[in-house]
Write a structure and sequence with these properties.
By secondary structure, the chain is α/β, with parallel strands linked by helices. It contains eight helices and eight strands; from the N terminus they run αβαβαβαβαβαββαβα. This is Levodione reductase.
Length: 283
Amino acid sequence: MDNTKARTLKNTQEQNTVAAARIKQIQSQLDTAPRTGKLKDKVCIITGVGSLLGIGRAAALTFAHEGARHLYLLDFDPTNLPDLKSTIEKKYPDVKVTTLQADAADEKAISGLCEQALREEGRLDVFFANAGWASKDSLQDTSVETYMKSMRINALSCFLAVKYGSAAMQKTNASRGKHASRGSIIMTASTAGLRSGAGSVDYSASKAAVNSMAKNSACQLQRTDIRVNSICPGLIETGMTDFVFEFARQRGTTGKIGQLNPLGRYGVAQEIANAALFLASGE
């Protein structure tokens, strides 16, 4: 090996070491970070919380850390809901937790959950529409059923969150400290909804719809003090993208994952949860 190749290899190894340390630091930040009360007294709904590596679970823990009054947590797969509920209640006993096994694209389930929040807490402050699904099919292999599944899970779920979440956020209840219309709706979109080459055709189309929905909903909800935003993650290590990481592990190329990103690494769920926290808070 010549000197140039040796230096390149050494630099790559050093960069991978730094990236791994940074990721570990981010993933463990809630263990040492002070509770600053950014979401004190906020009533929040989060969908898509079931994955152990997922953005929804990270957001639920982050929202609890920052003092949310009551978290309503929904996922289609109930497997990990009991663990999430017990984890939050054990670490943050001041936070109420309600879990629900339901489809985020089910109108009755979403409207009912918003009504439940109003009935039990008298207010709704935050709706983080995070539920999502990704196909892996090429254009020619994508069926109509797959396309519509992407649109239903990724886009329709966000439409329902905006429609019913904003209606609940406009309700006032002076006895619960809600004197005026106010709230924050956050939707998980994707860089695939902004540019080509970041996802399948159906997935990209559904995420582009989410970005468009955020813009148009914010316009329609003007003067209600309800904010609507979408977050567009790049490559994040979650249950949905696990196949990418598993493939790299099998090939021994884990260190190359995310090298095309400006930071030279992939992202983790906690980073997106931090962005959602900012948008959910009064900051």
